[in-house]
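Re: beginner question about structure tokens

> Can someone show what the tokenized structure looks like for a real chain? I only ever see the sequence side.

Sure, here's an example I had lying around. Input first:
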Amino acid sequence: MAERTGRLARAGGVEIAWRRLPGRGPTLVFLPGFGSDMTGEKATALAEWCRASGQAMLRLDYSGHGASTGRFEAGTIGRWTEDALAVIDAEPEGKLVLAGSSMGGWIALLVALARPGRVAGLLGIAAAPDFTESLMWAAMSFEERDRLRAQGMITVPSRYGPPTPITLALIEEGRAHLLLDAPIPITCPVRLLHGQADPDVPWELALRLGERLQSADVQLTLIKDGDHRLSRPQDLALLRRTLAPLLGQDRV
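And the corresponding structure tokens:
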């Protein structure tokens, strides 16, 4: 099956790049993490698996990410969620299984809340709901917070590449989408994978998320030596094994 590519026009002249693989439903939707894109190892491995098994798949880049246009610094959790919803509403029909990595796990939860009738299952891979508040803002010194308020943006070191810009808008707008302080009214099956050697998102966050979800069908798998990316061959195999039942597949 040939993968289709396209671009969806958004406000302000921004175009969201997407790739869609036709096949049987439900459609697997991959949502990448903060600063990541749809050509990462997990997204690419899942696309190859879906192509081989005849499974429909959709992946996309948020504004300011990957092949999409727009400035990364202009992005917020709400805006990137709207990007995902716009592509989902424009492209695949029928039921969806959402797979979100890191920030993509937060966005997957927000998409599931916005489109509850369409989401048949959800997988969080080192899911990081509320990270702008609990991991970014909470980790900043008083001096960094003052500088962020005064300048509107600071940069912080990243173990994965150049320093990452953090905007005041990202922090403040993120507060409108916090989930972990109340029950989360998602009732579809949810699977959570998290590495206990994750240096970026504590694995205990997955326990808290599991407690907050109202679904009676929540399963958490901890990978003792797993890092944040969970992109090793054994991690990708676990990812496929976890997704297969959600997609109704009998084999991986």
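Each token stands for a local structural state, so reading them left to right follows the chain. The longest helix spans residues 77-90.
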